[in-house]
Amino acid sequence: MKKYTDTGKKDTRSGFGDGLTELGRKNPNVVALCADLVGSLKMQDFIDENPERFFQVGIAEANMIGIAAGLTIGGKIPFAGTFANFATGRVYDQIRQSVAYSGKNVKICASHSGVTLGEDGATHQILEDIGLMKMLPGMTVINTCDYNQTKAATIAIADHDGPVYLRFGRPKVANFTPEDQKFEIGKAVKLYGGNDVTIIATGHLVWEALQAAEKLSEKGISAEVINIHTIKPLDEDAIIKSVKKTGCVVTAEEHNFLGGLGESVARTLAENNPAPQEFVATQDTFGESGTPEQLMDKYGLNAEAIIKASEKVLSRK
Amino acid sequence: MSDIQELKDFATQVRRDILRQVHKVNSGHPGGSLGCTEFFTALYKEVMHHNTSFDMDGKEEDLFFLSNGHISPVFYSVLARTGYFPVDELNTFRLIDSRLQGHPTTHEGLPGIRVASGSLGQGMSVAIGAAEAKKLNKDKHLVYSLHGDGELQEGQNWEAIMYAAANKIDNLIATVDLNGQQIDGSTETVLPMGNLKKKFEAFGWDVLEIEDGNDMEQVIDGLKEAKTHTGKGKPVCILMTTVMGNGVDFMMHTHAWHGKAPNDEQLEKALAQNPETLGDY
């Protein structure tokens, strides 16, 4: 099997920052907001090039969401950035009423999602944000897997008219998707073809799924790996087609198994093609302090966990 | 420039519309709506430069945001009677499949509404965003907003108030409806907010007052005065004292009619105090 190559570890948040900078150059309507986390969100280049199009709101996320909604009235395309926890749970009602229900073209850009935020611990590690956002009618939910994809997604969502939740992370991770990729919202990306088990992953777990598939291959198990960067709208056709072929599925995400990608996949399959499923995800728990690697290991969010889940789900076929 | 009597007649008809809307569905918020009738009339008939051929972006026109969305009956009546949508549509207030939802929304595409409101405390932030967009677009028109006094208990307002002063949002006129009432009683008994004038000033706003927000001349003069304060580096706040339930004697000076509709007999009595001027829908 053809192996994917890590072209050098990079953080997905830098993909966001670089995508935003590129957008700033080509789309004069793109504006950005931040709640005192410019460095963490890698927004400084955009600010340096477009100071008049940047709004520093201070530590006031609710106000940031409202201002972003207002900026759309007048044709601006606001990208509002902060940590995932403060971009969702803290301001859920502001997003619900002023953005989603009002149909505003706001891009909520959430860094430091999941446990890989690391040492800051559970107060800052949200594992519920995909669920919160996907339940909002009209909200598009995207969780990118590496630097290149995050950059491509950042650029792509400016052309989508409607609210978007873009989720990315803090640590440097493998960068393996093509630099020149065309990002299509709602379109699954098949990374490996296989016949025995379908592995559907999102975000940081996509690289882990690739590592798992390679090891499974050595054991004679043929795994199909699908990168679901868009959790909503979900590419149901790609999921159904694959699981019809393999007969079982493992979902993998850096998120609570309640409300995440896994449940969206389960619903799709329950309606269309019921199949055994295993969930690689956190098990209704908060995170804690530690290095990203330690936390991924402790909470069962790595290639090893995906291999175990794949073997288990195969036994249930 | 409309004749003052013409504006007062308009306001009287708006009061009838408010009462009839909430009576028909036995729900809605007449108290605050009646108290802000002069404000809406003055704003839409006399003060704002606005286009009734509604465009969401609202470029090259003044914009208004209602933060305390529960006073939708007065908003709907004034929008309809200034030409945003057919007056007959007031018949559908709060009914199934209506564009006139209990609280204003953009979701059903009602002309004149630019953001959903009802969950309190969010409107000032949105108004600031729209004001920032106007500055970016080199659009000299103004952004107006209205807020309840009880609504200022929501913390997001103070984030917005701090931001607006720090960022010199001087194309915004935010009016606070000081009717002193909220659902559980007077603001003084529920949660006293102290001296709001000093609070706004301490945050760096230019604060004006309208002593009687139910006096049409005072409201017009106050709003026009506020316009002359824009463009000077500070956001402008109008603290406007009103009487909740104004124009219907038994609804005045009490929070009892905050969210309660009149029955048949009460409606008749209330309408008798506000004779038809422009024709009922």
Automatic annotation (TrEMBL), chain A:
<feature type="domain" description="Transketolase-like pyrimidine-binding">
    <location>
        <begin position="10"/>
        <end position="175"/>
    </location>
</feature>
<dbReference type="InterPro" id="IPR009014">
    <property type="entry name" value="Transketo_C/PFOR_II"/>
</dbReference>
<dbReference type="Pfam" id="PF02780">
    <property type="entry name" value="Transketolase_C"/>
</dbReference>
<dbReference type="Pfam" id="PF02779">
    <property type="entry name" value="Transket_pyr"/>
</dbReference>
<keyword id="KW-0786">Thiamine pyrophosphate</keyword>
<comment type="similarity">
    <text>Belongs to the transketolase family.</text>
</comment>
<dbReference type="InterPro" id="IPR029061">
    <property type="entry name" value="THDP-binding"/>
</dbReference>
<dbReference type="InterPro" id="IPR005475">
    <property type="entry name" value="Transketolase-like_Pyr-bd"/>
</dbReference>
<protein>
    <submittedName>
        <fullName>Transketolase</fullName>
    </submittedName>
</protein>
<dbReference type="InterPro" id="IPR033248">
    <property type="entry name" value="Transketolase_C"/>
</dbReference>
<dbReference type="InterPro" id="IPR051157">
    <property type="entry name" value="PDH/Transketolase"/>
</dbReference>
TrEMBL record, chain B:
<dbReference type="Pfam" id="PF00456">
    <property type="entry name" value="Transketolase_N"/>
</dbReference>
<comment type="similarity">
    <text>Belongs to the transketolase family.</text>
</comment>
<feature type="domain" description="Transketolase N-terminal">
    <location>
        <begin position="12"/>
        <end position="269"/>
    </location>
</feature>
<dbReference type="InterPro" id="IPR029061">
    <property type="entry name" value="THDP-binding"/>
</dbReference>
<keyword id="KW-0786">Thiamine pyrophosphate</keyword>
<dbReference type="InterPro" id="IPR005474">
    <property type="entry name" value="Transketolase_N"/>
</dbReference>
<protein>
    <submittedName>
        <fullName>Transketolase</fullName>
    </submittedName>
</protein>
